[in-house]
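Hi F.,

I've been meaning to write this up properly since the lab meeting, where we talked about keeping a consistent format for the predictions we share between groups. The idea is simple: the sequence comes first, exactly as it goes in, then the structure tokens exactly as they come out, then a line or two of notes. No screenshots and no reformatting. I'm using this chain as the first example so we have something concrete to point to.
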Amino acid sequence: MAAIKQGLEQKLQQKLSPLQIQTIKLIEMPVQALEQHVREVLNDNPVIDESTSSGGKEEDVSISKVEEQEQSGGSMEENYGPQDDDIPSYNLHVNNWGKDERPEYNTFSVKQSFTQSLQEQLGYRNLSDHERTVANFIIGSLDEDGYLRRDIESLVDDLAFRAGIESNAEEVERMLRLVQEFEPSGVGARDLRECLLLQLEDKKRTPSVNNAIRVLDAQFEAFKNKHFQKIMSRLHLSQDEMKAALDEIRHLNPSPGGEIDDSYNDQAQQVVPDFHLEYENGQFILTMPRFSIPELRINHKYSEIMENGRLSSSKADKDAASFVKQKIDSAKWFIEALRQRQNTLESTMRSIIDFQKEYFADGDESSLKPMVLKDIAERTGFDISTISRVVNSKWIETHFGIFPLKYFFSEGLENNDGEEVSTREIKKVLREMVDAENKHNPLTDDELVERLAAKGYKIARRTIAKYRDQLGIPKARLRREL
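Output, unedited:
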């Protein structure tokens, strides 16, 4: 039997304070999530009230304002120490936002969701409840591009095991054909070929449409690989007939679901910018728009309950005082975390603007300098993980568009002059070269390397291939036109 030993061991362990934990959580939240969270805290913690003080005007964000708040507010340890029972009112109040129930900020809504549109069209069809349920299940099985990536037998099994609905392959196939009649044309296809054919079948049958159907129906593999001469030979098409057929196909939509649905999910979404930037007379004016997040304060009557309970000899009073103290501590941490979130976001955004001054002045993508999280962390003094949390899910409205903060970050490469240029600038030049190329003889990756080198960009062929893939540009052979 092993001997039992007893000894002392010293460990260095870092723990986050409740305030730090609160601040980290709040920094990650976009403004809409923050608004909802503040409302939840107001409902859960009776100590916190909405302030009745005046104010609520939209204010310009400035570094001096941040510093002034930090100096006047003090640190958590200085103002909210465990022995500090006299709570100064200025430390129990956050007034970064107005109280408007209908705030004056811009929201950017997406269109009706893809699923909702199809279900609405289904409602106009005369079907039995059973058929409607099967069709609804098929609609719910479509991906964001509008395709059905499941085979019919799998859908029959899913209907039985997941929805408890008895069906068969013939019925599911019939309901799928029904869904494929809906708008946008091509929805419910099981692959690209079927998607394009569905769209062509909805068109008026002209010679070019008929030839396009023949190409996709009989020579799809050759079409995918752009073997146009083989197709012309096999289908006995002239060059003009082939061009007309290709022109019909080129105007089809390979992702019909994208016509209605937005790029996030099947529910309607809104983007609320966290920042608004204007550029006037050579000066940047950064503001944080008014939100429907109320001003918060701690109700002082609870401080009196805590004080009376501490002086009382009654156990019930002391328990009540202990409960109130816990709620007051939680409230103080939350209000201070809100203030620190505001200051962190302001400081980070201003550093990004200062780093990318040329870009924010005119919106020219080629003016974007290489910038990584570390660059902004060094300027602000915040940790890289903090900058990452600020950047995530935050948006800014500028005079040339609305952008997620992640958009402004990119790696860099050296040009022939030894200057560092953004990979986004290189991708822009690459895209322009491909757009301007002769489509009858498109540029190969090696030729793109040579042309970029002539412009001063030293890039390896494998890097060109990587950027091309990221931009969704196919290989030269697949870009060739007849």
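Notes:
The chain has three domains: 18-102+273-398, 114-259, 412-479.
The first helix runs from residue 18 to 28.

If this format works for you, I'll send the rest the same way.

G.
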